[in-house]
Write a structure and sequence with these properties.
The protein is an alpha/beta fold and about 290 residues long. It is about 30% helix and about 25% strand. It has a single domain, classed as Spore Coat Polysaccharide Biosynthesis Protein SpsA, Chain A, CATH 3.90.550. This is Glycosyltransferase.
Length: about 290
């Protein structure tokens, strides 16, 4: 036990796993890929998977770490978000109690997964009787907004994301609503930096389907480019003000973007992390 178990949810954007799995493979004890046995999304849409993808998985799985976990993850009576939470819980159960249960979305790419694992190991005590001391470990996402000429627009301020837990009683997405331990780890999130067709597919099938207005979001997304992005603000698809401003970095691939970003200006400071963790510790002991 006390393993590093990494899980992915395979759906309509499964090709992005070719960028998401390699950064975590070496430092993970096991990698689980959850795929609906009937190839359905949380909204009931059909997933079309090229057989070559499974060949790719076999080729990269040199250490025999990858398990494809198929089950019925679509229940018509549930909302898309309810189906998402249900699948995440089922996947976590498959990954095993007593381990660090990390769930990474297809469009999230760790920049230094080994460092995240090192941070997790500082808290291995929480893996003993996890139901008595549930915690969740947070990292930060740098949201990629739109590929433009010679580079990409990204959301200027990183946002927190729950990435791991010892007790996967998920309430919304990956959030268990339990004590949070913050780390200074960063992932690139290829959220809406896709083609227009891919964005529409995402909005039709993901957990936030009932909350989003694709037409309203796409109107601004289409208009923004490398020359005028500073004239706009409020870009988030749920609560627009949460993505206040965009910034630009050169690069036409994840690798180029990673090498051109100045992470020191993006990752929250040591004091910020200390303050947040102290507050979470205090609340967990005195609530």
């Amino acid at each position: 036990m006390k393993k590093i178990q990494v899980g992915f949810l395979m759906s309509y954007d499964y090709e992005l796993l070719k960028k998401a799995i390699p950064p975590v493979y070496a430092a993970a004890d096991s990698v689980f890929i959850a795929l609906d046995e009937n190839y359905r999304t949380w909204s009931g849409g059909k997933i079309l998977v090229d057989p070559e993808f499974f060949k790719w998985l076999e080729e990269i799985d040199v250490d025999q770490k990858i398990t494809i976990y198929k089950d019925n993850f679509y229940v018509p009576e549930l909302t898309a978000m309810e189906n998402e939470v249900r699948e995440r819980k089922m996947l976590a159960q498959k990954m095993g109690k007593g381990n660090w249960l990390i769930q990474v979305d297809c469009d999230e790419y760790f920049l230094n997964f080994e460092e995240f694992v090192n941070d997790l190991r500082k808290y291995d005590k929480f893996l003993d009787n996890p139901e008595d001391k549930p915690v969740q470990i947070a990292a930060f996402l740098l949201v990629l907004y739109k590929y433009v000429d010679n580079g990409i627009l990204y959301v200027e301020k990183v946002r927190r994301q729950m990435m791991a837990t010892n007790f996967p009683d998920y309430k919304v997405g990956r959030n268990t609503k339990q004590r949070i331990i913050y780390t200074q780890n960063l992932l690139l999130h290829e959220s809406v930096s896709r083609s227009e067709e891919e964005i529409i597919t995402k909005f039709r099938n993901w957990g936030h389907r009932e909350e989003t207005n694709p037409d309203q979001f796409l109107e601004k997304w289409r208009a923004v480019n490398s020359k005028n992005f500073s004239e706009y603000q409020d870009f988030f698809y749920l609560e627009p003000e949460k993505w206040k401003k965009l910034a630009f970095v050169k690069g036409n691939s994840v690798e180029q973007i990673s090498s051109n970003l100045d992470y020191k200006t993006l990752i929250p400071s040591d004091f910020y992390i200390y303050k947040k963790n102290f507050g979470q510790w205090f609340k967990s002991h005195f609530k």
